[in-house]
Amino acid sequence: MQSSILPPGQFLPEEHLSGLYQDVVMASILPDHKTFCDSIPKSSPKEILTLYHAEKNKPDFDLKSFVLENFSLPPEPAKNFCSNPELPITEHIKQLWPILTRKPDEEKSSLIPLPKPYIVPGGRFREIYYWDTFFTMLGLQESGEIAMIQNMIDNFTYLIDTMGHIPNGNRSYYASRSQPPFYPLMLDILALEKGEEVWKIYGPALKKEYEFWMEGAEEKIQKPGESYRRVVRMPDGSILNRYWDDKIAPRQECYKGDMILAKESGRAEEEVYVNMRAACESGWDFSSRWFADGKSLQTVRTTEIIPVDLNCLMYFMEGCLGKISGLEGDLKGEECYLARAEARKKAILKYFWSEEFFYDYDFMKKETMGIPTLAGVFPLYFRIAEKDQAMKAAEKLEAEFLKPGGLVTTLNHSGHQWDAPNGWAPLQWMSIKGLMNYGEDKLAKEVRERWVNLNVEVYKRTGKLMEKYNVEDVSLEGGGGKYPNQDGFGWTNGVLLKILLGKSSKRVKREI
Q: How confident is the model at residue 477 (pLDDT cuts 50, 70, 90)?
């Protein structure tokens, strides 16, 4: 099984603080487990661990005091930023870019060092996140921050070259999983700004990222129904992708909660862990989309589901690799990748469409799932859908998903953040663009206006932009999940600025 290659000497909290780490997170003495995972040891982990074992059994020992004496808790510089609500919202966002910018990393912590500056989402999210970054880049493009876009692409390229893939985020505890593969869409933005040479320069990294997602496709899954890591062979022999995580254990950043959930589920603990982690790789953590009963996290079964959005992203990646091969004069490679893209398109139309909408596919039950989610707009965004399918999908979006504040993520009120009543910036963008691709401009405009109005109203009340929004009752905050709504916020800023300004790229070629 493939494993990620971390930089030499990389700090791994669970491993390098074995015993202390478990005691701290199980005692719940800090705001959340991520706080301790992100803390910076004031001396070597080995020295701290030795000191801990020498002192922990003393009568007056206090675990929280020990942690505060031996670790620097992570700062949250963007959390309390609040501008004057009278300031135009576009200017507020532009003010936020430097607030959310981080310099090349030097601290010795769970943070995986990156060579160039980058932008974080905000709040408790103190590191990069894979798919968040594309939507942040949409706003950076409108702000003219092309150098920052390239910095962030270079950082992702560095991660591909050193680790073998782009992880969930640049933390050691995220190394075993990825997130929705938006790297080729990032390259597309940069190519619009700097020319087609971008594809050739970053082509080797894109190919390596593709190989990560496709590992085992040829040699490990020969028969229909077989799966290996992120690939599944479908009943007709075609190959599609699923979400996965190579580490089968409680997540470090949610250690105690995962352990309790696994024990209470009545299932094999390893089965729960791998499905929880796979849901995190999807970016939709958590949603009833992944639950067997549509309600409870205890029934999470992500690895048994073939996601429609992931496979549309893989289709785009294959097309980009075909384009790169063509630019390089590799006609055989071009033919191979474009044939893969075409085969995937046929499989997407075959397995994910059902009467009126695109759904995920249950490869254990061998049936389209029929659970409506905004993942179903991805075939429209990537122009995979047939015209009549797009029209029917638009009708369903308008009839069932459209709410006062925009499009709701799913139709299910499960209490989890990637369900009703929440709306998320990336899914609004994919929906708006997908509808426009098929001439559904009136509905696209309605979604855009409702989402912008909600963002602006919350900004006027609070002086902030949020991670997610309640699109059903616009007077309330978005909710659900294991943490409070975060402000900042990278992808909300990016999508809103793109919608409000929306000028076309100048396509000016500059030196890369």
A: confident
**Average model confidence (pLDDT) across the chain:** 93
Q: Do residues 167 and 112 lie in contact, with contact meaning Cβ atoms separated by under 8 Å?
A: yes
Query: 44-62 b/e with 16+ CB inside 10 Å = b?
Result: ebeebbeebeeeeeeeeee
- The pLDDT value recorded for residue 7 is 85
pLDDT confidence band for 509 (50 / 70 / 90): very low
The angle formed by the CA atoms of residues 122, 26 and 132, to the nearest 5 degrees, is 20
Which residues does residue 171 pair with via DSSP β-bridges, in sequence order?
111
- For 212-230, write each residue's pLDDT tens digit: 999 999 999 999 999 999 9
* Average pLDDT rounded to a whole number, residues 395-415: 98
Q: How far apart are CA 271 and CA 320, in angstroms?
A: 35
C-alpha–C-alpha distance, residues 193 and 187, integer Å: 10
User: Cβ atoms within 10 A of the Cβ of 293, count?
Assistant: 10
Q: What residue has token string 């020990």?
A: 66
Q: Which two tokens stand for residue 374?
A: 């905004």
Query: pTM above 0.85?
Result: yes
Q: Rounded to whole angstroms, how far apart are CA atoms 375 and 231? A: 19
- CB-neighbour burial class of residue 303 (10 A; exposed 0-12, middle 13-18, buried 19+): buried
Cis peptide before 81 (omega within 30 of 0): no
* E-assigned strand segments in 187-332: 227-228, 231-233, 239-241, 305-306
Active site members: 285, 467
